[in-house]
Write a structure and sequence with these properties.
about 550 residues, alpha/beta, Rossmann fold, 3 domains, eleven-stranded mixed sheet, six-stranded antiparallel beta barrel, 18 helices
Length: about 550
């Protein structure tokens, strides 16, 4: 990596292997060096050390507290600044020895020269990879540099990731830009790849990709983007091609999972073991009596005659003391509530259904599926039902990826969840009333990485997400966050340098701190999110235009 020929400063005494102080030369003062910039120390032993500016400290001996000029300043007299010693210091965080950011074993010495560097000219020396390189996506641009994207390795995706940022910070735009990179993964010359993705879209932030694929036939190397909406949505009629209903098949679930789903939907997330065991006993009893087949649990809620018979069987089991009376009553209420998902929303009778073949096709064809939970696609759908859908989908994904592992089929999927705090909440601080999907998402977070099933959690309130789930994330994209979340984010992300901690609540829209396993360097970086290739138009408001039309 080439530095500029003229040094901009010199290292002062007291440097360590972690930090140093540089006195800036006169020609580089007055704002030419900025916080966050990368500089290079060239030592007397011909070593090159990459550093980052953490603080700029202007000094003037005529403006020290309690000095001889205190009274003159108090009376607003003119201080002869041109006679004072004036200089600038910058504090440097030492990042590693170039090339490839090796560990710094010996600190720089006083008198070592400091140079500006152009990060964009030789990324291989810093990041250890060429542009392009197989399996590497080059993302955004480093703050303060015109065209200096950072490399992210797709090998870090299975370790789970999280995107944080308050509303308006640009986090969903950021996720969209990441999606655009993940459908154009460099493999070799003239060959691009796409990673399969399942996206829970809370506010129609990614529907532009569905429309783009409708109009252009593909999105990068992704052959199809399919949108799933609730059956009662008018969007089913507006966008027929590649729009499918959100429809579930209970028969794909293990009996235990089915029983837990019914009980938790009724209770709002609490799992009563007596009720779960009671439903298991009930279903097995109905199979023995020939009421239902072992592969058709769904008929209980689709056939009114079988539904009535189910309640009769509960009474029989209660009389036989196989189920306690109170448990039997709770199971009846649970079945009545669960029947809502069909009676009101047709989630069981609609076709085609989200089941095993859905996962097979998505992973094999490297497609994208968007479960649209926005107001247009899920009119009147309560949070509890959305949680049920995610719980079902999570169970299905975990089951399928476990099967792939057993069969030694190597497959991968990125499971992106917007508004993650609503689906795996930290109930100690965020009581949303329901937590149906939390247990299943926790299972994916702890076990999914072994099977190729990866989470990407997106939230404006990270401290509201279940800490167990979030602790499994190893890559973080941090936009401007709420002051209430600062200590939590510092903890889960593994800590940040002090200068970046100070910026967590003041980052500009589109600025993001990137740190973790996907990054090719062992330190956090601040970048500008790249411009999306597919314009972000869905869900935008036009208040002024509407008011003008009303005023006519």
């Amino acid at each position: 990596m080439m530095s500029t020929k003229q040094p901009i400063g010199v290292v002062l005494s007291g440097a360590s292997t972690q930090s140093a102080v540089c006195q800036i030369y006169e020609h580089a003062e007055k704002g030419k060096i900025k916080e966050g910039m990368f500089l290079q120390i060239e030592t007397q032993g011909n070593r090159k050390i990459l550093t980052r500016v953490t603080n700029i400290i202007p000094q003037n001996e005529f403006y020290l507290p309690g000095d001889a000029w205190t009274e003159a300043r108090r009376k607003q007299w003119q201080v002869p600044e041109n006679l004072a010693r004036q200089y600038e210091l910058c504090e440097l965080e030492l990042l590693g020895e170039i090339p490839r950011l090796k560990e710094i074993a010996v600190p720089p010495y006083a008198g070592d020269k400091v140079f500006e560097i152009d990060v964009s000219t030789a990324p291989e020396e810093i990041f250890g990879v060429k542009n392009p390189s197989p399996g590497i996506i080059w993302y955004g641009t480093l703050i303060g540099y015109g065209n200096s994207p950072i490399p992210l390795t797709i090998e870090g995706i299975p370790m789970h990731s999280a995107v944080f940022g308050v509303t308006g910070s640009g986090k969903s735009y950021d996720v969209g830009a990441l999606i655009e990179k993940l459908v154009r993964i460099y493999s070799e010359e003239n060959i691009q790849l796409s990673i399969p993705m399942l996206i829970i879209d809370a506010n129609a932030d990614y529907i532009d990709y569905f429309k783009h694929c409708q109009e252009n036939g593909s999105l990068g190397a992704c052959p199809a983007v399919t949108r799933y909406v609730f059956p009662n949505s008018p969007e089913m009629k507006l966008y027929r091609r590649n729009t499918q209903p959100i429809a579930i098949n209970l028969n794909t679930l293990a009996l235990r999972d089915l029983a837990e789903l019914i009980v938790q939907y009724y209770s709002g997330g609490e799992k009563n073991e007596l009720q779960v065991a009671g439903i298991e006993t009930l279903v097995q009893y109905m199979e023995e009596r020939g009421d239902i087949s072992s592969d058709n649990f769904q008929s209980i809620f689709l056939d009114e005659t079988i539904f009535r018979r189910t309640k009769q069987r509960i009474e029989e089991l209660k009389k036989a003391d196989a189920i306690h009376a109170a448990t039997a009553a709770a199971i009846k209420r649970g079945l009545n509530k669960f029947a809502e998902i069909e009676n009101r929303y047709s989630l069981l009778s609609e076709t085609p259904k989200i089941e095993g073949e859905f996962v097979d096709e998505l992973t094999k064809n490297r497609g994208i599926a968007i479960l649209d939970f926005s107001a247009d696609a899920a009119p009147g759908v309560p949070l509890s039902l959305k949680q049920l859908v995610i719980s079902y989908v999570s169970s299905l994904l975990f089951q399928k990826f476990t099967d792939y592992k057993v069969k030694q089929e190597e497959r991968y999927m990125l499971f992106i969840i917007e508004e993650a705090q609503n689906y795996c909440p930290n109930l100690a601080v965020y009581d949303v009333g329901y937590s149906l999907a939390r247990e299943k998402l926790s299972l994916i977070s702890t076990q999914g990485r072994k099977f190729g099933l990866s989470l990407c959690l997106v939230s404006q309130r990270p401290s509201f997400i279940d800490p167990i789930v979030l602790s499994m994330c190893n890559t973080f994209f941090i936009h401007r966050i709420s002051p209430d979340d600062v200590s939590f984010v510092k903890k889960v992300s593994g800590g940040l340098p002090k200068d970046l901690e100070r910026r967590l609540t003041t980052l500009e829209r589109g600025e993001v701190i990137v740190t973790g396993q996907m990054s090719m360097v062992p330190f956090p970086m601040v970048i500008n999110v790249p411009k999306r290739e597919v314009p972000h138009t869905f869900g935008k408001t036009d208040v002024l235009g509407a008011l003008r039309r009303l005023a006519k």
